[in-house]
Structure formats: C-alpha cells, structure tokens
Specification:
- The complex is a heterodimer of chains A (83) and B (168).
- In chain A, 58% of the residues lie in helices and 12% in strands.
- By secondary structure, chain A is an alpha+beta fold.
- Chain A has one domain: Arc Repressor Mutant, subunit A (Orthogonal Bundle).
- With 168 residues, chain B is mostly helical.
- Chain B has a two-stranded antiparallel ribbon.
- The chains are: A alpha+beta (83), B mainly alpha (168).
Chain lengths: 83, 168
C-alpha cells in the first residue's frame, strides 16, 4: 500500500529517498520510504493523522514546518547580504 | 553542513546505513509516542499562552487527531496505557483514551478530573458523529460548544435523545 502524505512531507521524503537509494539497491522504494518516515517520525518531523477520507496518512509536524520557515527566512537573509 | 537548494541538510538527510531489518510498514515506536506526547504538551502550552477565546481548540484538536488515528488502527486503549506509563501515571483497569492523553499532556492544576471528563466526552462525541472532512472546531461549534457536545455524548451513550436537544 502506498503511503499517503501531504505535499510538504512528500517533497522531503522524496529528497531523502534520492539521497540514499543508490546505497540500498536491494531495497524497494516502498521499504526505503518506510524507513525514512520512521526516522522522520522518531525525530518529531512527521506525524500520522486521518485525512479527509478518514484514511491514515502522514503529514509534516508543526515543528518541522516551523523549522522550514526559519530556514527559508535564513536563506532570504543570506540572499539580501549579496551586493 | 551541506546545503540543498539553500536549506540545511537536516531537512533531507537521513542515515544511509540501515542496520535494522527493513519492513514495508512503519511501526509506531515508543520514541514516536514520546514525540506525539511532546507535541500535545506544546499545543497545551500554546493554547495557555494565547489570549484568543478559542485557543483551547488548538489543544483539543491535537488530542483528537492523535487518538482518532490510534482508534482507526484499533490500538487506542493500548497506546493510551503506554502513554500513562511513560508519564509514570497510575493506570487503572478501565481507561478512556482521550481522558488518558489529556491527563498526560495538560497541566493537572488547570484541568481537574471533571474538566477532563467533559472534554473527553465531547471528543468521543466528535469521534462518533463528525465526518472526516469537517474540522473539530467547526463540528463542536455547530453542535453548540464543548459542554453541549459532552451532554450529547452522554445522551448518545444512554441511547436516548439529549434533554437539551431532544429534536435530534
């Protein structure tokens, strides 16, 4: 069964998958995505919930969204520093 | 620290060494439960720090969302027991998941047993009656507020119409 995710989390899970897939050629994408979600959940970045259809799905936590917003602001500040 | 599109690697990097057996599913670990409880505790503190009249819904929504998916997996009581044990709270034979999670995450000095019971009944009413597409806040307000949802749940459990809302 495919893991349901919100768009923000999907983006970062896909990025992590691209990063590690070459080192785990023996594993399926589904297995690797499960490992990534497990890691994200353990560090408080991903959470499960019921979606609008009442199915269990994954989404980025408020903590993760706040960190992304901070990082985006930092990146914008860095850009402003360029002449 | 390396960067991807200007963002710190924290956001995308996960360990490339997988030492444990790999499964297709994602087991719900004790550490994940701890993180969920911490998030609810943060939601409690956020709602306490807010001056908005509806701030309590920040917390109640977080509690509802957690117990709702536990219930969908048919593991709510078991996980609520585990949450109580993680917080070193005595676990009785008959626990109610919403009340247990509120006990684990709200300040007991501000939420007594009676308030906990009322919120728990309102949330159980929402669990039974609310459609997934409607938000908890909308649902509770549409049904007349937290107190009335708690009353409706009591009537629903007894199998008779609420005396306050006998038209239903």
């Amino acid at each position: 069964m495919k893991q349901r995710m919100d768009n923000t989390l999907r983006f970062w899970v896909d990025a992590a998958y691209e990063h590690i897939k070459r080192e785990h050629g023996n594993l399926t994408k589904r297995q690797l995505v499960a490992q990534i979600l497990r890691k994200y959940e353990r560090r408080g970045d991903a959470m499960r919930c019921l979606n609008n259809q009442g199915k269990i799905s994954w989404k980025a936590t408020p903590q993760f969204l706040a960190m992304l917003a901070d990082a985006e602001r930092d990146a914008e500040d860095d850009l402003d520093d360029f002449p | 620290m390396s960067y991807l599109e200007g963002l710190p690697s924290y956001f995308w990097l996960v360990s490339s060494r997988l030492k444990k057996p790999v499964h297709d599913d994602v087991p719900y670990t004790t550490q994940a439960l701890r993180e969920d409880l911490l998030r609810l505790r943060n939601a409690w503190e956020d709602c306490q720090a807010s001056r908005q009249r509806d701030a309590i819904y920040i917390y109640l929504t977080a509690v509802f969302d957690l117990v709702a998916w536990w219930t969908a997996e048919n593991r709510a009581v078991e996980r609520a027991r585990k949450a109580l044990r993680l917080r070193n709270i005595w676990v009785s034979d008959h626990i109610e998941p919403f009340a247990a999670i509120i006990q684990c995450t709200a300040d007991p000095a501000k939420v007594d047993k009676r308030a906990r019971s009322k919120w728990s009944r309102a949330l159980r009413y929402a669990l039974v009656q609310k459609t997934p597409s409607e938000s908890l806040v909308q649902f509770i307000k549409r049904k007349g507020g937290i107190n009335r949802c708690a009353e409706r749940f009591r009537a629903h459990r007894l199998g008779r119409p609420s005396r306050l809302f006998s038209s239903e």
